[in-house]
Structure formats: structure tokens, C-alpha cells
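job 3f2a | input accepted
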Amino acid sequence: MCWCPNPDGPQFKRERLITDVRCMDQSEPQPITRAELMKQLAEIATRPLLEATPVAARSEIPAQAQERDLFVWFEDTSSRATEGRRGIAGLPESLLPYARGLRVVERRFAEGHMHLLCAVHLKCRGDTAERISSLYTAALSVGTVAWIGTGAQYQRAWSDLYGMRSLLPRPAAG
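job 3f2a | predicted structure (174 res):
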């Protein structure tokens, strides 16, 4: 007999892969793409620690309208190129996955490379997990690694490394 959680329940997304493996009805688990895996990992990483947010902490602004800071550092993997593997000093700025609701607040370039980002501070609105997974995927596609953080501790780390700058102006609504 196979135990499968209720597909409408909150645990279903998280346990879908485990359930696919446990169920005897299915001959093999369903394969997922790298992008789906990265999105699932980003959703898990950005899930709140508390299931229920206290009433006082809830804001009246809808979740889609709230902006969230993302602090991204790209690993310098250029030394890998000497070993015959793929490696690069950062992420080419042209590969930054721009989307509606995502804006660049501050860029830091790799020393000696005016088009390779070594760090970027982003503000995003909407599905943060999707933004994080697209950043990871873009970085992996060129042979680097993206280290992405959000929250006060990453804000402090950014300030310690680069100092505080005034935010770039918001684009005009239109």
C-alpha cells in the first residue's frame, strides 16, 4: 500500500519527490530539470522559519508589492580554466537575469574586468525563489557560483565590504 500526502496540503510540494520514490504504484520517480531543482531549493531557503507570522508583524502591503533585498556574490573560478575546466572571474553583466520587478541597486565589478560582476545588490518584487533560481542558473551556465543572501546580516556584510551608497533612483513608472 502506498502512502501519498494530500496534494492540496502544505507539505505536498516539499515532499513530492520523496513521495514519488516511496510510492510503489509508480515504476520510477519523475525526473526534474536543473531549473526546477534550483527553484525548489530557493523556495526552501527563503521559507520563513515560523509557520505562522504574528499578527503584529503582518503588513497591509500585499506580498507582491513588497521589495526584498538580494545580496549576490559571484565566486572567482577563473583558476579552473588552467586545469581545462570552465571558470570565470564573475558573472558577465549581460547574463544577469533581468525580469519585471527586479532592479539593480549597486554593482561591483571584478578587478580588471569592466563587464564581469563580482557582486550585485538587487531589489526584487514578486517571486523571490524564482529570482534566486534564475541567478544560480545564470552563474552555473558560465562556470561560476552565486552566493545569495537576504536579510540584515547580508546587509551588514555588504556595508562592511563596500560601504553604504545611496540607492540608484527608481525608474519612472510607465
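job 3f2a | The radius of gyration is 19 Å.
job 3f2a | closed
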